[in-house]
Design goal:
The structure holds 2 protein chains of 2 kinds. By secondary structure, chain A is mainly β. Chain A has strands at residues 5-7, 10-13, 19-24, 31-37, 43-50, 53-57, 64-68, 74-78, 87-94, 108-109, 113-117. In chain A, the strands form 2 sheets. In chain A, strands 2, 4, 5, 6, 9, 10 and 11 form a 7-stranded mixed sheet that branches. By secondary structure, chain B is mostly beta strands. Classes of the chains: A mainly beta, B mainly beta. At the A-B interface, β5 and β10 of A face β4, β5, β9 and β10 of B.
Chain lengths: 118, 109
């Protein structure tokens, strides 16, 4: 069974440009999460999609946006790129809508997209 | 706002000894806690979890302890092995999942 796949693996952009990152969840998973791992800051929660809808977003500006398609794959868009957007962007998927003590759901991560903004 | 905190960026232990990684959280709504392990150039992988109704969960060499009153959890690895060297992330969940900054564990032969 294929895991979570992300593309591209690496992306180089210049300041002011737009970046599009893609994620395909594990087959059967309906929830997709996006995280940013900037140097020394751990995994910062960006967005959570479930069944095609945005369920929650982290403390990021509106130029970070995304969507989830009918096949549950997802896209993260970053507009007006800034130097500090350089980071590893990780996508994760889960089977259930929420990960809590009732579902005991786990997130399964892809290997990430390394975005470099020059 | 950092709702999950790992205050030790790094930890070094000798092979065969115990590794103890710590994590604190601030949001009392969290009811499910996990530890993930990450190697370079790979995504994090699930290690062990604990529900808020328990105070301990064990899986082989890995044990997670939860102290709800202190909003603190820890991961014990006994005995530590060189292959355990990785970055360990603590996570807490209520609806979505929040992660700490990670602790880099180095196990020396």
């Amino acid at each position: 069974e294929a895991g979570v796949t992300q593309s591209p693996t690496h992306l180089i952009k210049t300041r002011g440009q737009q970046a599009t990152l893609r994620c395909s969840p594990i087959s059967g998973h309906t929830s997709v999460y996006w995280y940013q791992q900037a140097l020394g800051l751990g995994l910062q929660f960006l967005l959570w999609y479930d069944e095609g809808e945005e369920r929650n977003r982290g403390n990021f500006p509106p130029r970070f946006s995304g969507r989830q398609f009918p096949n549950y794959s997802s896209e993260l868009n970053v507009n007006a790129l800034e130097l500090e957007d350089s980071a590893l962007y990780l996508c994760a998927s889960s089977l259930a809508g929420t990960a809590d003590s009732a579902t005991n759901e786990k997130l399964f991560f892809g290997s990430g997209t390394q975005l470099s903004v020059l | 706002d950092q709702q999950v905190k790992q205050n030790s960026p790094s930890l070094s232990v000798q092979e065969g000894r115990i590794s103890i990684l710590n994590c604190d959280y601030t949001n009392s709504m969290f009811d499910y806690f996990l530890w993930y392990k990450k190697y370079p150039a790979e995504g994090p992988t699930f290690l062990i979890s604990i529900s808020s109704i328990k105070d301990k969960n064990e899986d082989g060499r890995f044990t997670v302890f939860l102290n709800k009153s202190a909003k603190h959890l820890s991961l014990h690895i006994v005995p530590s092995q060189p292959g355990d060297s990785a970055v360990y992330f603590c996570a807490a969940s209520y609806n979505d999942m929040r992660f700490g900054a990670g602790t880099r564990l180095t196990v020396k032969p």
